[in-house]
Design goal:
By secondary structure, the chain is an all-alpha fold. It has 6 helices and no strands. It is 67% helix and 0% strand.
Length: 125
């Protein structure tokens, strides 16, 4: 897939107006309604400056490609990557270390001179 999953996109499928709030919600993993409420509050608090930023984002940001995520688990994974990339790489390293350790344990058990294991294998023959 040529589309970057770590980039901000306008979410036209869940859009109410231009898709900026839905895109922010998709990017961060926060509920869309909460993002919309915060946008209204910030627009009122800043005398409309946030609304100008909203219009700029609606004009500049690309639309989200169809089929960007395979399923909900894929979407949650990429949201986690966007929020904290160091944590995500640490999780992947930890999983690989765990898999490597488990494979080493299996290899040690299989190649060791375990007479009980040899007897069980002979009994199966």
């Amino acid at each position: 897939m040529s589309a970057s999953r770590t980039k901000f996109y306008l979410d036209k499928q869940d859009a109410k107006w231009a898709g900026v709030c839905a895109g922010i919600a998709d990017y961060t993993g926060v509920d869309t309604t909460l993002v919309r409420v915060c946008m209204v509050i910030l627009t009122l608090a800043t005398s409309g400056w946030v609304f100008l930023a909203y219009l700029a984002a609606a004009w500049l940001a690309p639309k989200k490609p169809i089929g960007l995520y395979q399923d909900a688990a894929d979407q949650k994974f990429w949201q986690g990557v966007r929020v904290n990339t160091k944590r995500s790489t640490a999780e992947v390293r930890s999983k690989f270390r765990d898999i490597d350790r488990r494979l080493a344990d299996i290899e040690t058990h299989y190649t060791s001179r375990n007479s009980q294991l040899a007897n069980e294998i002979d009994a199966l023959r």
